[in-house]
Amino acid sequence: MPGPCPTDIPAAPTRLCESCFHTRPLAEYRRRKQGSDHRVRQCRQCHNEFERYRRAAVRARLSKRKMARDLSRVRDASSSNRIKALCAEVVRGYGGAEGFARAWIACLHGDLQRGGFSAIRHLEATIRLIQHCELDRPDYSQMSDEELEATMASLQ
Q1: CA–CA separation, 43 vs 20, rounded Å?
Q2: Domain limits of the chain?
Q3: Alpha helix locations (H) across the chain?
Q4: CA distance 102 to 128
Q5: CA distances from 131 to 64, 90, 134 (A)
Q6: Higher-confidence residue: 156 or 128?
Q7: With 0-12 CB in 10 A as exposed, 13-18 as middle and 19+ as buried, what is 70?
């Protein structure tokens, strides 16, 4: 006796994804709860894409908040030693000077486009850092030739 005809085998149940409008097998949909037969309305591919987008937005929001907090701390620092310590901590937190510069520039461009208090905070922190650098910079015009040579040697 011949085996069952391929048309007699029931097809796997499918469902229409409400995001991409593709019909996919039910196994491509996440369960609502563990042990439940109820499935979500988005296929796994659409769900994963949405989650990547959502997590990137959360990371951007958190890094913007962190940058705002760091800028406020630098702006409000009362001494040069405190500014040095804060700058070292902030640079370490961003993975080095290059990482900090990238984050600072990205945040600055966004804040300047929006305007308001956040743009002012960037400018105040920049002015505070410039003031700090001006205070700590030696007066080269008052140095002797030996002192200038020693300073140049220490920079190399």
Answers
A1: 8
A2: 60-138
A3: 44-76, 80-93, 97-114, 117-136, 145-155
A4: 20
A5: 24, 18, 5
A6: 128
A7: buried
